Amino acid sequence: MANCKKVTRLLSDALDRPLTPGEWLTIRTHLPMCSGCRNYRKQIALLREATKLIRDGEAPAAADEAAG
Amino acid sequence: MAEEAASARALPWQHDHEYLSRLRRDMLRFAQLQLRDAAAAEDAVQEALAAAWTAQERFAGQSQHKTWVFGILRHKLVDTLRVKQRTINLSALDSEIEGEEILDTLLFKDSGHWAQHSKPRPWPKPETALQQKQFWKLFELCLDNLPESTGRVFMMREFLGLETTEICDELTVSANHCSVLLYRARLKLRTCLTEKGFDDSGYDGEDNDG
User: Fold this and answer.
1) B13 and A CB contact within 8 Å
2) Choosing among A11, A19, A33, A55, which should be mutated to test the B contact, i.e. which has the most B CBs within 10 A?
3) Strand (E) or helix (H) holding B196
4) By C-alpha distance, which of B81, B87, B49, B84 is closest to B66?
5) Which residue of chain A comes nearest to B182, CA vs CA?
């Protein structure tokens, strides 16, 4: 059975390349049993969303206290 | 010049000093994150603004001026990184990859399952998180904390939007190395954010099976 180390790597790879059906199967059988990996998946998705905002200059200037 | 037109809403951007200084500040932060070199960042921003200035007629019709200028800046940063890349020390990259293996030992048990203390707990929902000052502050801090090559690969992928194959070619490393570096970058970022206190204790616990 796939472990978390392997599944988290696949979930990361999925952001960079198409996964094979076998790889998706590995993920799909693991996720329902593992809240850690489900949370990890949401978190790396959030990282991607955040970087997208930064790269378009649309991130709130919140990191800068002086921002008006 | 700007003074007399200050009341007009549609001030040409080149003359809107307030807008320009905010734009410049945000561009600098973006460039510095990636280049980790204040002087090079300054150069890239200067060149991008100059290019935006001369190419402004091509901007007509686009709604987001800032997005457009950031697009120009990204191209400059890709160029700058390409030149820098040639000087990357491959043995340093290798030792960075090996050195990071300790992270696996910290996060995962021998079985490859999450260690009890490191199992990811829920974060706030994206729409909430992305509105939080705390998130952005910690995110930048954690990006800065990434090891040099790991950070560079992550930013080339996420900020400059390069495909993994392009990044591997630039770095002359294998596709596997590249994807390991991206994996480690994401793992480190989420771990760093969590360790610095980004979590959601008030979350309804949908994904918290213990």
Assistant:
1) no
2) A55
3) none
4) B49
5) A12
Amino acid at B160: L
What residues have CB less than 8 Å from B31, skipping those under 6 apart?
B40, B41, B42, B44, B45, B73, B77
Domains of chain B listed by start with CATH number: 8-85 (1.10.1740), 90-195 (no CATH)
Mean pLDDT is lowest, of B84-98, B109-123, B124-138, B151-165, for B84-98
What pLDDT sits at residue B101?
74
Query: Is residue B93 within 8 Å of B149, Cβ to Cβ?
Result: yes
Closest Cα to residue B180, out of B95, B91, B97?
B97
Q: Which of residues 115-174 of B touch A (CB under 8 A)?
A: 119-123, 126, 129-133, 135-137, 139-140, 157-161, 164
Q: For the segment B43-78, what is each residue's pLDDT rounded down to a tens digit?
A: 999 999 999 888 877 766 555 788 889 989 998 988
Rounded alpha-carbon distances, angstroms, from residue B170 to A50, B32, B144, B153, B156: 25, 20, 22, 10, 10
Alpha carbon separation from B168 to B23, B75, B128, B155 (Å, rounded): 32, 18, 35, 13
